Amino acid sequence: MSTTSQTMPTTLILFNKPYGVLSQFRQDNNNNFATLSDFFHHNKYKDIRVAGRLDATSEGLLLLTNNGKLNQHLTHPPKTKHDKKLAKTYWVQLDGLANNNQINQLRDGVMLSDGKTLPAIVEQLDTIYVQQTLWQAPANIAKRKITSWLSISILEGKNRQIRRMTAHVGLPCLRLIRVAHSHFCLSQHLHNPHNTPKLCAYSLAVGEFVEIALTKFQLQQFQLQQLGRSNQTFLKNQHIKSAILRNKS
Asked: Coiled-coil ranges per the record (predicted)?
């Protein structure tokens, strides 16, 4: 690693990823999805990488950083008593009404093709509250007469895990939104009160991001799960930017 990369200030970006955007910077030849380069096209973002992908048809909180150790910490956290602080929380719209048996299966862990999932925190959400809180659903989300919403918090990241979990118990996923990751959540209104409290809440509209410059000390505290009150205030007061989709004409 070069001296320049070793001394580069650590940047952490929180991005409210829209539906239909790949969690990568290069375009695949077999699809027409937008990519992160359509939002982060300034040269200063050339070294940032995604910490925990969302598939193109999922929405919500995406973390990006230029620090490899922080990326590793966010995607593969050390097994400590603080693990719950690195949970990822999703709001999930399901095709059908979730019953207690299905919810308990999700909580206990289900057997997928690549192994059994770890126990999850699963809570029912009030549909009217969700409709009043969330942004409008993308036009191409399938419409169903009877749907329900769950909040699901997990500590691992198997490929398309939430969608596979709900399908396993007979509840196809219609819409998937990550509302919290690690210490951060999109809004206090989107936070699941039954989960470990998040330190920093941002009201990010779809396509908006906040860029945070971490000092060496703050980075160490972040990785040790010991962010103090002064650091929480610093993180909360960062300026929110609007990522404008570049005209691809």
From this structure: none
The residue annotated as part of the active site, out of 47, 55, 114, 126, is: 55
Whether 160 is in a domain gets the answer yes
Does residue 34 sit in the same domain as residue 62?
yes
CATH number, residue 130: 3.30.70.1560
Q: What is the pLDDT of residues 7-25, one digit of tens each?
A: 678 899 999 999 999 999 9
pLDDT by residue (tens digit) across 181-211?
A: 988 888 877 655 454 454 578 889 999 999 9
**Is 108 one of the catalytic residues?**
no
Looking at the fold, whether 28 and 43 belong to one and the same domain comes out as: yes
pTM: 0.85
- DSSP for the chain? --HHHHHSPEEEEEEEEPTTB-SSSSPPTT---B-GGGT--SGGGTT-EESS---TT-EEEEEEES-HHHHHHHHS---STTGGGG-EEEEEEEESPPPHHHHHHHHH--EETTEEPPP-EEEEE-HHHHHHHSPPPPTTSPP-SSEEEEEEEES---TTHHHHHHHHTT--EEEEEEEEETTEES-TTTS-TTSPPPSEE----TTEEEEEEEPHHHHHHHHTT---HHHHHHHHTPPEEE-PPPP--
Question: Does residue 71 sit in the same domain as residue 186?
Answer: yes
Its domain, for residue 14, covers 10-77+182-225
